[in-house]
Specification:
4-stranded antiparallel β-sheet, 4 strands, alpha+beta
Length: 145
Amino acid sequence: MKTASTLLIAAIFLFLPACSSGGQRTARPPVPPPAGPPAMIGHIVFFQLQNPSDFHALLHDADWMLGTIPSVESYAAGKHLDTGRSTVSSDYDLAVYLGFKSEADLRAYVIDDQHVDFVNKWKPRLKSLTVYDMLDWPTTRYGVR
């Protein structure tokens, strides 16, 4: 009987957080766990909105318009995490990370209709946009793949 009670309590604690989201989260497409090293190319975008109340709409569109493009290998999006460190920039509303296996996949993403539609929809509503593209150095330098 003690084992059954322990299992019931454990199940409650495991499932309780899923019930308490309070409607604050945006539904996300399922993302499989990474298998091995990170994507060879990282495309990181920082959005600053003219109207910060557009955050959830921007996040939703990024999830479903960018995170579902076939050439995207990995995807993450979220708001600034305040860690109290003055060296960490906080001048954005949403950051999006997209990983690609190759430059050809990044080029395919840039011209994909969903990306073009996303840019056309959101560019007029932005105060600023900063984009960084990076090549994963250990992947290319040491042939990790």
